[in-house]
Amino acid sequence: MNILVTGGAGFIGSHTIIELIQAHHQVVVIDNLCNSNPESLRRVATIVGQEIPFYKADIRDRQRLEEIFSSHSIDACIHFAGLKAVGESVSMPWEYYDNNINGTLTLLDVMRQHHCKNIIFSSSATVYGSPVEIPITENCPKGQCTNPYGWTKSMLEQILTDMHTADSEWNVVLLRYFNPIGAHPSGLIGENPNGIPNNLMPYITQVAIGKRAELGVFGNDYDTHDGTGVRDYIHVVDLAAGHVKALQAIERNCGLDIYNLGTGKGYSVLDVIHAFEEANNIKIPYSIKPRRAGDIATCFSDPSKAYRELGWLAQYDITEMCRDSWNWQRNNPEGF
Ligand code: NAD
Ligand code: WQD
Predict the structure, then answer these.
(1) Closest ligand to Cα 68
(2) 93-137: per-residue pLDDT in tens?
């Protein structure tokens, strides 16, 4: 298929392009580079041995989208483009709603005008809010999000659902990612956060490389096996492969489908620190800090629907995730 990848220069998008090309799809990328570096796509080109058609453009720019859809016959869109920093979304809600909601509405409008009604959307486990069941199945009701970023995902899921309800020609796959970490085993591409990392693994790798003195562990009084927060970490290459599998659902005219992409296993913050230390033989100094606002104790998936219906199953374990995160950071101390 000919796939438009929005946000393809970013962390998950760049890894997904590799899997798509290796599965013999064609890709066209649009990214405004607000949170990424074009070097990621040059590295992807090295890995796959072919140039990646790229448009530096904003998905809110209707005219540019029109041009792209007019010059390529796009079969489906994998829609990663969006702002994703939870804390920033609390202080800049308008910017998050404008970018994520208006961007997606513009994209959907141009898509339908060009008779392309197939979309895979990057959603998040954050839409479950404080989940009423663990492990979380797709039947778990959506919950109250704790920040504007999360609401953009929840609202966009509703918007995409309503588009499908109104027009059954739309095929919509909502992929709810759990906690993506790791990097391509080549060490050429990986997560490249700006400033102080918000997420656990990039913080750990920056401590390991000596950029930060120690990790703060946000709370050790949760109701978990060691008191620290438990999450479902998933290797980004597994996540990327999930998108290729999701295209099969689109190909068989799935209508609307929702899948959790996680491993189904929960690891605490201390488990991850210890796994990283063992995998890479590096000590990670840490100290216990107060809980972070908006955090929940435990979040992990039941990923069996994706296995049953798409034949998708995460392959990498926590040791490999820690190894590849470190391999990327060690080879690229300053990122791209
Ligand atoms: P990322 O920031 O690395 O990638 C997103 C890309 O979108 C960036 O390259 C950015 O420049 C681009 N972009 C943002 N707004 C744009 C716009 N208006 N027009 C064009 N390009 C734009 O993030 P990621 O971790 O690769 O996440 C990809 C998607 O997955 C996002 O939608 C994110 O919300 C979602 N997601 C991420 C996680 C995670 O933990 N990384 C978890 C769940 C869901
Ligand atoms: C994981 C655990 C922290 C940093 C976020 C978003 C979610 C999704 C994925 C996009 C928690 C603890 C963290 C640190 C710590 N993104 N931690 N010290 O919060 O599960 O999910 O990213 O959709 O929407 O909310 O991931 O990596 O920030 O935290 O102790 O310096 O690590 O408290 O228990 P989270 P995370």
Answers:
(1) 1
(2) 999 999 999 999 999 999 999 999 999 999 999 999 999 999 999
Point out the catalytic residue in the list 149, 222, 259, 267: 149
Ligand 1 centre to CA of 281 (Å) is 31
The predicted-structure confidence for 172-212, as pLDDT tens digits, reads as follows 999 999 999 999 999 999 999 999 999 999 999 999 999 99
Residues near 302 by beta carbon (within 8 Å), at least 6 away in sequence: 135, 136, 137, 260, 264
> Could you give the angle at the alpha carbon of 243 between the alpha carbons of 324 and 84, nearest 5°?
70
Q: Is 149 annotated in the active site?
A: yes
Q: pTM to 2 decimals?
A: 0.99
Identify the residues whose C-beta falls under 6 Å from ligand 2.
84, 86, 124, 126, 150, 179, 198-200, 203, 215-218, 229, 231, 269, 292, 295
For residues 6 and 12, the answer to whether their CB atoms sit within 8 Å is no
**308 Rama sector, left if φ>0, alpha if ψ -120 to 50, beta otherwise:** alpha
